[in-house]
């Protein structure tokens, strides 16, 4: 079973793949749903107040487009690009006044084009370019008065053309149409033609035209003198002629040798002229004479009845007393229409000669009974007596018409039937008795007619079906008893062993029985109430046990429940193992029980309307995994979560209109992989970020068409009420405050950790780099100014070594040797930042003497001073740094001070402890270092202490 389910889903996807739609979020159109996934794609854009052809609303694989009833004024070249599969295009009832040449060039598959009811005035040379497959073209009800000679050159397959109700004046204007190689039907009704003469036409070849409609023109002259219409079969000249009447000029009968149909209705023509017409047609079979009372009074029918080939005669709308009496000699007829002739009775003997008559229409008259003459029509097959005043049917009415197969007696006053009425009609298949005052069958169907297949008696006064009422209708397939409020008694349907379709209206408390309907496939029940509501029999569902072949079951209630449950329990559907379509409209008060469809595993279409489904149990869908169509309209639904809790992988159509849906979670539709049609119209949507995901899904998904989504309006909050749902700005909803807080807090934590790491491990390096940068800036300014050095040397020392500097260094270097030294306690400018003083001192002196001791290495300011001095050393590449050690300091103690250790390894330095008693040599070396010029430092890069 699981494999079968997977296979079905795969097949559904394959069907969708074979029939893809490029976009489903259509603003102005709706793709019409089809039960067959492989069916042609039909696009409905009608009645949308469109002013142009919608640019992005037409999928490329569409086959049929409805753009009718809009306000489109112009068709352009870009309107129908890339629509190579369109076969039918409806654009009637617009305001189209111009079509750009080449506008249809991409519609190579188009077979039918409807441009009627527009404002076109002319047809240009290239207006139909590209329509080589077109077979039907309707241009009626425009104001066309000019047709270019080449306008129809591309329409090589055109068969039917309608130019009805335009402003064409001359027959030469339709010559481009008559030249079409496959033309069969041309309608130029309601134009301004005054004559039709073939001598004015210059055709290279004979026309293939079969039907010509020239009705309602001011046509005074109809002349065919050249053999250009050898295939013409039908001519309509209704409402033609004026002044002296229509003139007919056919000098050679052979020119119209194939004409079989001729129509006259209110045609202004003399008796002599119409007699000439009838005499020039040797093959006439169908003649229509409507509103021709004047000529009929002049015995026109005497001429008509002499036409030996005539088989069908239409005389409706001729209010002539005793009209039938004028047809006595029309024995050749097989069809006769006498509708709407104000007939009160059929003249006795008027039809007796019509032994060949097979179809007789006497509808819309004032007959009070079935005419006696009908009994003599032994070959009659179709009898239409609708819309008369017949009140009763007699046993002899159809005594000899044993060949009757169809009888239409609807809209009369028949009150009862007799058992003998139809007993001789062994070939009767269709009987229409609707809209009568029928109260009883009178046993008329207990013995037949045995071949009857369709019986309709809706809207009558029948109130009960008794046992055996249909005993003789073993061939009946379609029974319609709606709008009758009928009580069905036990055994009423016995004998209907082949019934396939049943429509019936019953009272709400009825206990009905369907025994004997084992082959019934379609059942429609309308539940009515008259008077006080009565609860149905508690075991009424047993009546359905015999409907084992049922496929479509529809129950519709037209009353309010008043709190009484009109539900259909599981037992009602238990025997319907083949049920595919179930509809319950206004039947349930609350949601059906979860096991309602336990035995209906083949169910494909489920419709429940006007029911409170707010407490719906998702288990309802467990037994019906093949569901394709689901309609829960007007069911008080507030959430769609139930869709995500069940397997509805085959669902293609989902209608949830008129519910209470405010917020929709778009993830619900992820559980519906085959969904192609979704209708959520008339729900109170909330226009805020709670619907942002749904809005984005509607506009971006490429599988599910959300019908009329662009017309959905907001109901909440109040400020958004009345606005369009899809106009809501969802971009503002993507700024997730929680996510922003997470990012901010994460960045703060990372920054704190990074700062702690840098402070603990890299603070000296950063500090050194900072002061090197300050020194670089200072040095750059000094170079630009070219300022001379103020001191010979800047002495960098720690305050703990200040006594040695004053006692040992100053007396020798300043007093004995005469050098000008810069000391921070003496020469720094008060009030100036200390780093600025240090920088000025270093760059304002030729040399920098660093007096290094253990205290010096531990001093922050001393460290900065030597860093600044070393930067100057390496930046200027000059011998500006003198290292003087007051103590012996091992290399390992210099390791933390990597810059100091590097300098000691690369430069000559002076050691006071090594000077010992020879201090004179020490100071002499200092003097030599101070006297060194500004040459490159490479000359003095000696390692180790200076020799004393």
UniProtKB/TrEMBL annotation:
SMART domains found in the cross-reference section: LRR_SD22, LRR_TYP, LRRCT, TIR
Family the UniProt entry places it in: Belongs to the Toll-like receptor family.
Molecular functions per Gene Ontology: signaling receptor activity
Keyword Ribonucleoprotein on entry: no
Listed PROSITE patterns: LRR (PS51450), TIR (PS50104)
Keywords from the UniProt entry: Glycoprotein, Immunity, Inflammatory response, Innate immunity, Leucine-rich repeat, Membrane, Receptor, Repeat, Signal, Transmembrane, Transmembrane helix
InterPro entries per the UniProt record, alphabetical: Cys-rich_flank_reg_C, Leu-rich_rpt, Leu-rich_rpt_typical-subtyp, LRR_5, LRR_dom_sf, TIR_dom, Toll_tir_struct_dom_sf
Tagged with keyword Glycoprotein: yes
Native source species: Anabas testudineus
Signal peptide range: 1-23
GO cellular component: plasma membrane
Domain (TIR): residue spans on this chain: 789-930
Membrane topology: Single-pass type I membrane protein
Compartments reported by the entry: Membrane
Protein name: TIR domain-containing protein
Gene3D superfamilies the UniProt entry points to: Ribonuclease Inhibitor (3.80.10.10), Toll/interleukin-1 receptor homology (TIR) domain (3.40.50.10140)
């Amino acid at each position: 079973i699981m494999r079968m389910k997977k296979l079905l889903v795969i097949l559904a996807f394959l069907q969708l793949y074979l029939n893809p739609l490029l976009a489903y979020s259509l603003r102005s159109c709706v793709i019409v749903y089809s039960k067959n996934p492989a069916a042609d794609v039909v696009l409905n854009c009608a009645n949308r107040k469109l002013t142009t052809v919608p640019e992005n609303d037409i999928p490329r694989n569409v086959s049929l487009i409805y753009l009718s009833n809009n306000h489109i004024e112009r068709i352009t070249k870009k309107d129908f690009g890339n629509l190579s599969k369109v076969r039918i295009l409806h654009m009637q009832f617009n305001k189209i006044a111009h079509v750009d040449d080449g506008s249809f060039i991409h519609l190579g598959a188009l077979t039918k084009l409807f441009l009627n009811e527009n404002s076109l005035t002319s047809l240009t040379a290239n207006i139909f370019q590209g329509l080589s497959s077109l077979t039907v073209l309707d241009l009626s009800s425009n104001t066309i008065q000019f047709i270019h000679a080449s306008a129809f050159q591309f329409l090589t397959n055109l068969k039917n053309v309608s130019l009805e109700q335009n402003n064409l004046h001359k027959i030469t204007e339709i010559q481009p149409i008559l030249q079409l190689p496959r033309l069969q039907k041309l309608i130029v009704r309601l134009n301004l033609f005054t004559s039709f003469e073939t001598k004015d036409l210059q055709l290279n070849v004979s026309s293939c035209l079969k039907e010509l409609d020239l009705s309602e023109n001011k046509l005074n002259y109809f002349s065919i003198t050249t053999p250009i219409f050898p295939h013409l079969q039908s001519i309509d000249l209704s409402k033609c002629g004026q002044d002296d009447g229509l003139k007919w000029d056919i000098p050679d009968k052979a020119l119209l040798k194939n004409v079989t149909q001729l129509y006259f209705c209110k045609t202004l023509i003399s008796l002599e002229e119409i007699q000439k017409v009838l005499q020039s047609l040797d093959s006439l079979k169908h003649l229509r004479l409507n509103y021709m009372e004047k000529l009929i009074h002049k015995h026109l029918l005497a001429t008509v009845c002499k036409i030996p080939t005539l088989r069908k005669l239409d005389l409706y709308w001729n209010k002539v007393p005793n009209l039938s009496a004028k047809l006595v000699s029309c024995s050749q007829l097989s069809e006769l229409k006498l509708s709407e002739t104000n007939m009160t009775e059929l003249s006795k003997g008027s039809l007796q000669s019509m032994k060949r008559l097979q179809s007789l229409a006497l509808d819309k008259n004032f007959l009070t009974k079935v005419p006696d003459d009908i009994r003599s029509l032994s070959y009659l097959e179709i009898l239409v007596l609708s819309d008369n005043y017949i009140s009763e049917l007699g046993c002899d009415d159809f005594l000899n018409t044993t060949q009757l197969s169809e009888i239409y007696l609807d809209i009369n006053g028949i009150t009862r039937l007799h058992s003998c009425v139809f007993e001789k009609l062994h070939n009767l298949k269709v009987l229409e008795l609707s809209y009568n005052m029928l109260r009883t069958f009178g046993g008329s169907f207990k013995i037949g007619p045995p071949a009857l297949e369709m019986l309709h008696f809706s809207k009558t006064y029948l109130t009960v079906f008794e046992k055996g009422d249909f005993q003789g209708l073993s061939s009946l397939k379609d029974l319609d008893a709606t709008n009758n409020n009928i009580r069905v008694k036990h055994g009423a349907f016995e004998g209907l062993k082949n019934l396939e379709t049943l429509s019936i209206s019953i009272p709400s408390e009825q206990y009905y029985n369907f025994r004997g309907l084992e082959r019934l496939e379609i059942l429609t029940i309308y539940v009515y109430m008259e008077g006080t509501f009565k609860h149905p029999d508690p075991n009424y569902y047993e009546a359905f046990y015999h409907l084992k072949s049922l496929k479509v079951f529809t129950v519709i209630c037209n009353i309010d429940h008043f709190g009484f449950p009109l539900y259909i329990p599981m037992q009602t559907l238990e025997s319907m193992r083949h049920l595919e379509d179930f509809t319950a409209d206004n039947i349930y008060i609350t949601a059906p029980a979860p096991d309602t469809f336990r035995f209906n595993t083949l169910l494909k279409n489920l419709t429940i309307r006007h029911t409170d489904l707010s407490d719906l149990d998702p288990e309802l869908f467990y037994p019906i995994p093949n569901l394709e169509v689901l309609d829960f309209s007007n069911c008080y639904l507030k959430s769609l979560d139930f869709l995500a809790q069940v397997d509805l992988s085959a669902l293609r159509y989902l209608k949830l209109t008129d519910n209470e849906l405010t917020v929709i979670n778009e993830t619900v539709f992820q559980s519906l992989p085959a969904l192609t049609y979704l209708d959520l119209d008339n729900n109170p949507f909330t226009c805020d970020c709670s619907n942002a995901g749904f809005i984005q899904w509607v506009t971006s998904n490429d599988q599910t068409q959300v019908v009329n989504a662009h017309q959905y309006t907001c109901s909440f909050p109040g400020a958004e009420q009345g606005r369009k749902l899809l106009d809501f700005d969802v971009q503002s909803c993507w700024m997730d405050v929680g996510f922003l807080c997470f990012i901010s807090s994460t960045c703060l934590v990372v920054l704190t950790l990074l700062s702690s790491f840098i402070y603990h491990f890299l603070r000296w390096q950063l500090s050194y780099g900072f002061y090197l940068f300050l020194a670089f800036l200072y040095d750059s300014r000094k170079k630009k100014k070219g300022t001379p050095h103020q001191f010979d040397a800047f002495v960098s020392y720690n305050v703990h070594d200040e006594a040695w500097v004053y006692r040992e260094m100053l007396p020798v270097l300043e007093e004995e040797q005469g050098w000008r030294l810069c000391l921070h306690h003496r020469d720094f400018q008060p009030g100036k930042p200390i780093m600025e003083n240090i920088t000025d001192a270093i760059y304002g002196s030729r040399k920098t003497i660093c007096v290094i001791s253990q205290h010096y290495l531990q001093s922050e300011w001393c460290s900065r001073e030597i860093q600044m001095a070393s930067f100057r050393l390496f930046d200027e590449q000059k011998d500006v740094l003198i290292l003087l050690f007051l103590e012996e300091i091992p290399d390992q103690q210099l390791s933390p001070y990597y810059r100091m250790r590097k300098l000691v390894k690369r430069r000559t330095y002076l050691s006071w402890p090594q000077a010992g008693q020879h201090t004179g040599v020490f100071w002499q070396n200092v003097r030599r270092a101070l006297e060194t010029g500004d040459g490159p430092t490479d000359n003095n890069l000696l390692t180790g202490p200076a020799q004393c």
